[in-house]
Amino acid sequence: MAKKKRLKIALIGYGAISQMLFDVFREKKPAIDIVGILVRKGRAKAVQKKVGRKAVVVETLKALLKLEPDVVVEAASQQAVRDWGETILRKGFDFMVIATGAYGDPKLWKTHIKAAEKSGARLRLPSGAIAGLDGLLAMRLGKLERVKYTSIKPPHAWTGTPAETEFDLPSIKEPTVIFRGSPADAGRLYPKNANLAVTVALCGAGLKRTEIELVADPTLPPGTNASRLEVTSDSGEMTMHRLGRAMPDNPKTGVLTALTMADDLMKIVRSSDW
Question: CA separation (Å) from 192 to 14, 27, 77, 198?
Answer without folding.
Answer: 15, 27, 8, 12
